[in-house]
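Forwarding the complex inputs:
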Amino acid sequence: MGPSGAVRHATGSQPGRAGGSARAVTRTLTDDPLGGTVRRTVLPSGLRVLTEAIPAMRSVSFGIWVAVGSRDETGPQGGAAHFLEHLLFKGTRKRTALDISSEIEAVGGETNAFTTKEYTTYYARVLDEDLPLAIDVMCDLVADSVLEAADVETERAVILEEIAMHDDEPGDEVHDLFARAVYGDHPLGRLISGTEETVTPMTRRQIQSFYRRRYTAPEIVIAAAGNLDHAAVVKLVRQALRGTPLDAEPAAPAPRRPETPAVRTKPAATLVEPKETEQAHVILGCPGIDRTDERRFALGVLNNVLGGGMSSRLFQEIRERRGLAYSVYSYASQYADSGLFAVYAGCAPGKVDEVLELTRAELARVAADGITEDELARGKGMSKGSFVLGLEDTGSRMSRLAKGELLYGDLMPVDELLARVDAVTLEDVNALAADLLGRPMSLAVVGPFGENDFSA
Amino acid sequence: MGPSGAVRHATGSQPGRAGGSARAVTRTLTDDPLGGTVRRTVLPSGLRVLTEAIPAMRSVSFGIWVAVGSRDETGPQGGAAHFLEHLLFKGTRKRTALDISSEIEAVGGETNAFTTKEYTTYYARVLDEDLPLAIDVMCDLVADSVLEAADVETERAVILEEIAMHDDEPGDEVHDLFARAVYGDHPLGRLISGTEETVTPMTRRQIQSFYRRRYTAPEIVIAAAGNLDHAAVVKLVRQALRGTPLDAEPAAPAPRRPETPAVRTKPAATLVEPKETEQAHVILGCPGIDRTDERRFALGVLNNVLGGGMSSRLFQEIRERRGLAYSVYSYASQYADSGLFAVYAGCAPGKVDEVLELTRAELARVAADGITEDELARGKGMSKGSFVLGLEDTGSRMSRLAKGELLYGDLMPVDELLARVDAVTLEDVNALAADLLGRPMSLAVVGPFGENDFSA
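Prediction (whole assembly, two chains):
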């Protein structure tokens, strides 16, 4: 983002560090009955505050987004971003863990957090009258957590339980295995939670250092959407951060994210996790496109047509016509400098070969012959409709503001986004399909197999 | 409901079969910035249509709710309601399965269905301009599905995959095991999906018979919420149902749901499902209260305080202070004539004894000493806040209309519901705690144990 380079974006603009000047932008969505108005302010510290005022709503979603995730860890730090996310809820100089949760829950609000490979998010959803409370609590815990040594030990045990829980969910586990198949030892191939081996020896000092070096004002975007007033939100945020480490520009910029190897040139890999499950959980896929790749709108359409819904080719072929799987779908993930495109299926172990054969055949068919005009229209309808339907919820709108700022350096107006989808042509989709679906495919399988059962 | 007795409700009123007269009720929510207006019409067939017009929203959620679920099956029919729910998407006299999904998905809408123990729901969420399409498609598939023999075979395979998938999720499986521990062979103790043993031999004729006997107009509630016009919705529903089996009053009322044994008097049971999981998945609990029990508001508060959030006693004790579990929570389920109250925890197998001991001690403490005034206030805040926050979404509002009508025979206005929560006293909660938490507790465990490891 701007000076730190922690997240790259296409425009090359410098959204942070506007020298303390408050640039306010108003964007009114055409044909938006909820009438959202977006405003943006950069604080002197470099921290950015974006809001969308939606007077028809009664709630506000408030989020603090930090441009650091598991890919910013070195190998031995594996899980540090996620460990820190847990610890921030354990207490600040002003509040115990119980204070934090009970203040929000007493007014019926909800709060939570999640860590991804590229960012970490803390959020609350409350009634509009409780927004000042939510701002105070959330800013306090993100800016001024104490990381007590005893809490580090308790939370280490909780995280090891979380890792064990995840290991009991083969349908989730296979996604991690697939990331490893594509990215190998690259940071994008590692577990967000870390592993028992990295979490067990992690020290308070390591986590504290990660916190202070990474959680700096220019790396943070605060976003809120709902029945709110922008100036009031900015004022409350400044009050809540006063006297904390986020009140000033950092002494040094956050470390740059290391350059990423060109994952596309890696050979495809097959990984099998032998496990006595009822179903085989299978992912077949390849490196995709970057988050800012202009072809992402075409990819959305392609994904919808291939495996994005019940009318998609893979769902129709594998579930509706043949009854081979309950769950089968394709998906695209995008990162700053990389991406994935893949197909998941859960099926009886004896049917994996058939499911894989059908999937490969369908991918090859689309790579060779493309999709139809009807499919193009349906794929665009899905992209636009699900986007617009997603705008009715303050949480989604808050996320849209923050992701636009954090990941793209700008917020694409709704009308422009819809126009970009509309502009996708059959040639765009078919050219992308020919490129993407012809790539060597990696395979991940969790199920009752041996490690070499799929090495053909 | 009313004449059929398919779902009992407290008032004893006869909401269906109003002789074809259209009773329209308007309820405007006080202090509702979205300004919802509720209206209700009973068609000549006995089918009820409820809508909530919310002009500020751009979407509409449309649902068809049928008062039949897995508890209405005899033992050998186990899974018939769920099997039928799958089959209705496979084609009508007018549409193929692909038509059904592609018509909705082409406009960016989403559609799905679920089966519970007491009702089955089919729903779609679309942009307001696409509501006529959604009504036509959803009414067609629920009223006029053909249940082709070949589709029965394909979908049987899909359901067997769904059952296998469920068996790979021990955190879900333990909930079914717990229901069996409490209810035994009672229909409420059986799996909604049925089992491989009941689904494999089920014939098209059995499912067809279940469909025609159970899916009758007086057993169905249609609900919609969003930017809509009530009269237009009623007209579109009538058009869509014209000439289908739901166009007329049924020849005979739906079969009465059999009387339920008094589950409260059953001895507590312990069931263990041995499985090589990383975590032990544990549920400890007892029979609770009926859906219409006046103490349900006090139970909501008690549940919030015991294990309903991060500030709850069990979360604080088991996760925050001791780090014994990642996930620990209590919950209450309510049925027409029964209920459950239980605590779930997922923890290392070696820590189950400690988690169970802490849980039993906390339940006993609350049974003996009750909760505090502070906890009462927080518990009420949670109930009210989460309810009001849930009103911002057309899907939740649609469900509220349908559940009110189907399960309670009436819609409780928002203000009354909030007042009922406000009226809960410390004495109410403590009397309920003393009754409920002193009951013999059943236990369900999925994990690396023997079947008799917990028979103390």
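Chain A touches chain B through 80 residues (CB under 8 Å).
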